Amino acid sequence: METGRKNRRSRDEWRALLRRFEESDLSLAAFCRAEAVSVASVQRWRGLFGHRVGQDVQQIEATKPAFVDLGALPPATGQAARFELTLDLGSGQVLHLVRG
Q: What is the pLDDT of residue 75?
């Protein structure tokens, strides 16, 4: 009996699987059982593709901005100007920025 994970699917294989789901009349749970894939994996890949499975991945990635300018913070004056930003980067890494 074989144990462990099966071979990983490529992006193209996930895109094809998601297209089959969109074209099926099955619920997500029923489709996942039939395809022997977890619901969580399908939901993750749907999110990564932005629910636009029919489009080419390069088209989707081309529409994503590489940088979003949020503008500058006002000058720090007084206690109310304190600014904290915490980003959870995953894998136990956290970036914590404090100004003021």
A: 67
